[in-house]
Write a structure and sequence with these properties.
Blueprint lengths: L2 E10 L2 E10 L5 E5 L6 H9 L6 E6 L2 E2 L5 H7 E4 L11 H6 L13 H13 L15 H14 L4 E5 L7 H13 L3 E5 L3 H7 L2 E6 L2 E6 L1 H4 L2 H8 L3 E5 L6 E5 L7 E4 L6 E5 L1
Parallel strand pairs: 3-8, 3-9, 6-7, 7-8
Antiparallel strand pairs: 1-2, 1-4, 4-5, 9-10, 11-12, 13-14
Helix pairs in contact: 4-5, 5-6
Length: 273
């Protein structure tokens, strides 16, 4: 019982932006979507959220084609957190979080279950004492936590996050991803920072030009060869600590490198500066 994408492709504006991608996330795992700009991360999240229909292939929720389900049904199971949101309207943090209960409301509005879900979401994100604060007065990190709290108030089984650490300083990036990683739900998160992905993700899926290049545990996927192939930079990958997590150190000079490929493997065979 989960969200699956099977061999999905999507053409947008005549361009193929997702090309034959399969993603089967195990329940409760944190999966990182990686790849350079334009690799298809956000487009894949759109398909997983049901915001667009694939040109071919299928996205299923609990074995049912997402395209045949009502939006309200999807929203009760799948929550979406975007990169950043802004409003000048004077709404409180509690008001923002309560928006997550809309998919569960009947014809007669809210109920005590809504109150309990909102309180629980605020507690999980450490925002209980800020429920009455105006949302626009929060820091960037607090605003993102409020959006995650809104998503949690939906009581979803799946959460999709599109580069949630954009615009955040290092402290808030670590705080936010630590929160995501410990949530007892399946989280699929698009990220640019490979070290953050290595620290917090159980699995990663690397995209390039809309296709899957590699997938699996970060320590197995984030190799020097793959980073050279996909990101066009040279890096050193080492095991950091006793937990087997890897750390990636980039060579700044390699940003101007050109690569020749091994004709047998397709991977870079040499770097020329």
């Amino acid at each position: 019982m989960t969200l699956h994408a099977s061999n999905v492709s999507w053409k947008r504006g005549g361009a193929l932006v997702v090309d034959g991608v399969t993603l089967h996330a195990a329940p409760g795992r944190t999966v990182g979507l990686l790849g350079p700009n334009g690799s298809g991360k956000s487009s894949l999240l759109h398909l997983l959220a049901g915001a667009a229909s694939p040109t071919s292939g299928v996205v299923e929720l609990d074995g049912t084609d997402l395209g045949s389900l009502k939006r309200k049904h999807i929203a009760r199971a799948v929550a979406v957190v975007g990169q950043h949101a802004h409003t000048d309207v004077d709404v409180t943090v509690g008001d923002v979080v309560r928006l997550g209960r809309i998919p569960h409301r009947g014809a007669f509005g809210g109920n005590e279950l809504d109150d309990d879900a909102v309180d629980d979401a605020l507690a999980q994100t450490g925002l209980t004492d800020k429920a009455d604060r105006l949302w626009r007065t929060l820091s960037g990190g607090e605003q993102q936590r409020a959006h995650i709290a809104r998503a949690l108030a939906q009581q979803p089984r799946e959460m999709l996050l599109d580069e949630p650490t954009n615009h955040l300083d290092i402290h808030h990036q670590l705080e936010l991803l630590a929160l995501v990683a410990r949530l007892p739900i399946t989280c699929i998160v698009a990220l640019h920072d490979l070290n953050l992905a290595a620290m917090f993700c159980d699995e990663v899926l690397v995209l390039q030009d809309g296709k899957v290049v590699a997938g699996g545990p970060p320590a197995q996927v984030l190799t020097e060869e793959l980073i050279a192939e996909v990101y066009r930079v040279r890096a050193r990958v080492s095991v950091d600590g006793d937990d087997g997590r890897v750390h990636i150190r980039f060579d700044a000079a390699a940003a101007d490198a050109t690569f020749t490929r091994n004709p047998d493997t397709g991977l870079p065979a040499a770097v020329h500066l």
